[in-house]
Amino acid sequence: MPDASNSDASDAIAAALARLRGRRGPRPPWGPPGEHPFGRGGPHHGGNVHGGRGHHGHATGTPPWLAGVRGGGGPARLRLLEALASASTPLSVGEIAEAIGVDQPRASRLVQQGVELGLVQREADPDDARRTRVALTEQGAMIARRFRGERRDAVATALEGFTDAERAELARLLTKLSDAWPQD
Question: pTM value?
Answer without folding.
Answer: 0.58
